[in-house]
Amino acid sequence: MVHAIRIHETGGPEVLRWEEVEVGEPGPGQVRLRHTAVGLNYIDTYHRTGAYKVPLPSGLGLEGAGVVEAVGPDVTEYKAGDRVAYCTGPIGAYSEVRLMPTDKLIPLPSWIEDRQAAAMMLQGLTAQFLLRQTYVVKPGDTILVQAAAGGVGQILCQWAKHLGATVIGTVSTDEKAELARANGCDHPIVYTRESFLERVKDITAGKGVPVVYDGVGKTTFMDGLDCLAPRGLMALFGAASGPVPPLDLQLLAAKGSLYVTRPTLFVYMQKREDLMAAAADLFDVVNSGGVTIRIGQTFPLKDAADAHRALESRGTTGSTILVP
Known about the structure:
By secondary structure, the protein is of the alpha/beta class. Helices cover about 30% and strands about 25% of the residues. The chain has two domains: about 1-120 and about 270-324, Medium-chain alcohol dehydrogenases, catalytic domain (Quinone Oxidoreductase, Chain A, domain 1), CATH 3.90.180.10; about 140-260, Rossmann fold (3-Layer(aba) Sandwich), CATH 3.40.50. The chain has ten helices and 15 strands. The strands form three sheets. Strands 3, 4, 5, 6, 7, 14 and 15 form a seven-stranded mixed sheet that branches. A six-stranded parallel sheet has the order 10-9-8-11-12-13, sandwiched between helices. The chain is globular and about 60 Å long.
C-alpha cells in the first residue's frame, strides 16, 4: 500500500492528512508514476484553503518528477524506467505513486536531476510564459518583479537579466535582498523599509517600467500600477497576500492607458505543443547557465503541513521540494 496527502475539508495546514491509498494499473493514455520528488507551490495553499475550489476529498499538488513503473495498453511514447516530470496537474502530486495521463508528462533530459526537475517545472514554465509570451522582455528593458527572492521571482530575475533587462525587485528583508541580487536583481528594494513606488520612480528617472510581474496581489497591486510607464502592462499572476479588490477600469485610463492581465500557466500550456515548446525553452536556458534552479528547502512528503506553514509565513526562499 502506498501513501498520499489528502484533504477532506478546507482550512489551515492541519487539514492535510497522510493516508494509505490504492493505485491501480494504468489505463489507456496513462502511466503509473513513482514520485522521486514533488514540487511545493503557492497554488497548493489556495486548493487547501478553498480559495480555489476542488471536489472533496481530494489530493493536493500539481507538480512532480519520477520514474514510470508501468504503462497503459495503448501507450507507446513511454516505457517503464523513463524519467518524467509534470506541472499542470491533474491535482494529486503529493503522493508516493499515482496514475498520470501521458499528455501532461514531459520527458527529462539526462542532465536534469529529479529534484531539480520538481523544483523547476511549474515555477520555470511560469517564468517562461511571463517573460517570453505575456510581455516579451527585450534587451534594454527595465522591469519590476514583486517577491524577487521567491521561487518564481528568482527565476524571473535570472532569466530577465539573461535577456538583457535591468531588473528591479521587491523583497521583505535584507537577507532576501542579497539573495535577489545574487540571482540577477540589479535593484532589490526592501519594501518593509522603503516605498518601492518611490524607488522605482527614482531608478527610472520618473519614466516607470513597461511591465510589472506581480505574484503578491492585494498589498502590492495599486502601487504597482503607479510604477508602470504609459501603456505599461501589469501581469498579475498570483495573490500571495490576498486577492486584488475589484478595480474601476477608469483608473487604467487615468494612470496612463494601462493594460492588466491575469495569466495562468494552465491556459498558456493548454496545448501539448505549447507545453513542450515552453519546456524546451526552459531546459535550454537552464542548460546554458542563464538560469540556475536553487532548492531552498526540502521536507519529507508526509510533513507537507510544515512546508505549507513555512511557505505561508514567507519563511522560504527559492524552490521547496517534498520528498516521498
